[in-house]
Give the backbone structure.
Amino acid sequence: MGALQAAEMPIRGAIAIMRDEELIDRRAEEGTRVVALGLLSDADQAARALERQDDEEALHDFRVALRRLRSALRAFRPWLEGAVRRKHQRRLRRLGRHTNAARDAEVQLAWLSTERETLAVGRCQAGFELLTSRLGERRRQALGGHARLVARYRKHSKRLRRRLRTYQVLLDGAERVPFSAVMGGLLSHQLEVVRTRLSEVRGAADEQRIHRTRIEAKRLRYLLEALRQSSQVDPRPAVKRLKRLQDLLGELHDSHVLATELANALADVSADRARRLLQDGPARQVLRDSPRTGLLAVQRRLTDRRDARYAALEQEWASGGVEQLAADVLALVSTLQSRRSGHRQAAEPRPSAVGVRWTSVHGPSRRMSAPGGSTARNAPSASSTSAASFASKVTRTRWSASSKRG
């Protein structure tokens, strides 16, 4: 009869994890948890900085940390069975959405500040100031709720950490799938998703497809970054290409978001102008004082910016950029697969460099008490993670695009 073993993994932060050169050779269930716990530590650190509000980039850093964590939990879900449920991912997604308004306003205000000298002049000034005032007020209102947001995050973080720290495996002598095999399959799949999404974009105004492509490119980048600082593989060339792609797609997305804000502002201004004209005010004065002229000037500048970014996207990515990215990613996949084929099969799990504590429990039970009193459910057994079931797990994973901004 096999022995069940629970592994408790106290983690000292993402830097320690990412420098663990043995990560890709670990059991899949362990490697995925090590990465997830490291990303959770990063999110905890970003939450503390946001609570202090002593860093202008604190909100952005917290959003990125949440996105990376959510992306990892989503990709690794088949190997985190019993630890992470859909409700945990939904809670993190809701937390991310609460930061959308503030971050969108920050990004738009930053761009408008670079255009002030050309757009905040003459008859255009009233419209420019109206737009910046609306965005500034939205940002102030959104930032006011960040203390509650951090408090909610901490509750979810504690629950996730407790569930991720332990798992069980059945030592029945069957082949175990290493983390390298998991990453190879995920990277191959996500690369194809990105290529497909890019091919579906139909123009600069194709807001929904551009947004979906941007989300999938981020997911591929986050997968690659799980391998950073490993001596066996080097994801930096692929990450560098993806950063450029994300920059272009991100600026297109920001243009679409600001275009919606402009449309709302123009609708409000038009309604106000009609009301003032009906009140028998001097028509010439009403038209001259209207912010409409300035808003239209911003709209024209924004359209020029959007079209220029789309032209750059077509030039760089329709003429070989995708194939260069694919070559970089597939080279990594080949290395990961070669490590799996030559991987040494271990009869017993061994303590990891980051302090895994193993506790053996013998018998047929499928549940056990983990160290500290928490209970861990069995992860998929080694026999269930053969090559065939591995492919099945990747296929079962949902790859639908997530909502706006994270």
Summary: The chain is about 65% helix and 5% strand.
